[in-house]
């Protein structure tokens, strides 16, 4: 399975009384996809992840605002709940069949952890944790976008070999870098919006495959 990327955000003065207000402000920063618009769902859990959801709302097809999402969550306000909000945002994706680039909606999942949920999981994961999608949408494949050419990995199967052959053309690699950089810039712009909207104590960008995901993004942005 491809590795996934995440961001964790810790907020000052986060408690049971303030969490829904913080959630509404956080949701207002999400760079939602142009079509289909709005949020896709809300799942409310209590105690920990092993428990069956308390409530589930399918929001697809509705132009739902952050205030409306929070209004749905109000009936289940407690320190030991987790709110999971699904959404879509537009990212550049390379179509394997046509080798063309498309700006298309990709799923993003937002988790808001109450201070008592799952034994205080927020301490490790953040008051907000976002599943950003596949790591390679921000880092590229096979080390191709590294500043060090020697970091490019050997292909493991024919599809990877075809991809690396395509990227051996300078114009294709240049476009790959540009589109990936635009995805990174959208992510960084979102985080700046979060810092402006909330009393952020700190945030951490991380992934399943990179030892230092944030440094990797900085490296790609720095290469010209």
Characterization of this structure:
By secondary structure, this protein is α+β, with helices and mostly antiparallel strands. It has one domain (4-136, 187-222). The protein has helices at 19-27, 66-73, 122-125, 136-139, 158-167, 170-197, 213-222, and strands at residues 4-11, 39-46, 55-58, 81-94, 101-113, 128-134, 200-207. Helix 1 runs antiparallel to helix 2 (66-73). The radius of gyration is 19 Å and the shape is elongated.
Percent of residues in helices comes to 25-40%
State mean pLDDT (0 to 100 scale). 91
Reading the helices and strands in chain order gives EHEEHEEHEHHHEH
Taken as a percent bin, the fraction of beta residues is 25-35%
Count of individual helical segments? 7
Count of β-strands? 7
Summarize the structure.
The chain has 224 residues and is an alpha+beta fold. The protein has one domain.
Topology:
Blueprint lengths: L3 E8 L7 H9 L11 E8 L8 E4 L7 H8 L7 E14 L6 E13 L8 H4 L2 E7 L1 H4 L18 H10 L2 H28 L2 E8 L5 H10 L2
Antiparallel strand pairs: 1-6, 1-7, 2-3, 2-4, 4-5, 5-6
